[in-house]
Design brief:
Elements: H1 9-45, H2 66-74, E1 97-101, E2 112-116, H3 123-127, E3 131-134, E4 147-152, H4 153-158, E5 171-172, E6 175-181, E7 196-197
Amino acid sequence: KNKITSHSKSVSTLRNGLLIVQMVVAQILIICAFIISKQVNSFFNQDLGFNKESIICFGVPDAAKGEILKNQLKESSNIIQYSNGGSPPQARYDDRFTSFFVPMDTEEKKEYDCEMKAVDLDYMDTFELNLIAGEWLPESGFKDSIRCYIVNETLTRVMGLESPEQAVGKRINRGRITGVVKDFHLESFHEAIMPMVM
């Protein structure tokens, strides 16, 4: 510092170089902070396709007593809705059940992998699922021998249907489709939404 004058060309070049590097690094950090902020904001505000707020999920050791528990809990004024479904919409991987569905209305028998969920009459209202075609499981479907199914939009596309309405009434797996719900995320946003039967 004492030996080189401030007017030296090399000192001026070094100073300008360091200033440019500092400005570039500062701009990169600002851009990174902006991107991270947008990602975090998107993560917390992304629409999952179902309601997850103020919902408690717990297992019932004795499934046969599920309806008794449901009736007792519904008596409480603190509980708005109760569903005795098999698992929540975005279940942990070890709580999920995958199987296949077979369209019965076509001559060509194909098996398609899909997510399976056991649900009850109150499942849709509890998780605020968006029914876009048909009706939720009709109460009559629990009284007769014909199984009733709700499917998601992805499954209707896999079946080659042009609209969700065309799926209503179709026969699959010894039962019929009564309704179609809007797609909701079963897992990470990085994963494609799978066909699903409820």
